[in-house]
Amino acid sequence: MNIQLENISKRYGFEWIFKKINYQFVAGEKYVVIGPNGSGKSTLLKVISGGLVPTSGKVNYSILHKRVTDEIDAAKQIAFAAPYISLLEDFTLEEMYTFHASFKKMKVNSKDEFFEISQLTAHKNKYIKNFSSGMKQRLKLSLAFLTNSDVLLLDEPTSNFDTKAIDWYLQLIENYTKDRLVIIGSNQEYEYSFCKEKLSIVDYK
Asked: Quick check: helix, strand or coil at residue 36?
């Protein structure tokens, strides 16, 4: 899927977060959105995902040079992981996976394979509300990476991670991003060192 931003602007009250972004994200490539904390990286990713409406401008989604006019159909091809995205905390891990897989096609053949890749097998019967912040982030990333989608959006992907977990994240990048459009919001170079293209949010203030 290609994603084209046409004069995208976003304002909260009287404050413009960014103005008139014209940019094209090409299928199969990897991009990073950079900028200081609070500059609008997360806001832009939310707009790209279709979860937030821009103040002005338009986001166009296309597959094989055909424009996707239905944003709901486009959203089905986007997997998104971020520290602020909520999980169903009254579910166990096993229940969370079963629920997610009931409406998303997965890249794994079973929930046990999912638990193994996520390295959360020992916690499959634990309620998510009892997970540590690092475990919750690991689960969010696992759900995003292992969902069969054309687009992968990652905002601050290694938040609450130690060195070992960062290595696990980089292995997921290696194993599960081939032929996917990947867009990362980050200020940590190790999170996006593999990205060929950069969009600096401060260029659109």
From this structure: coil
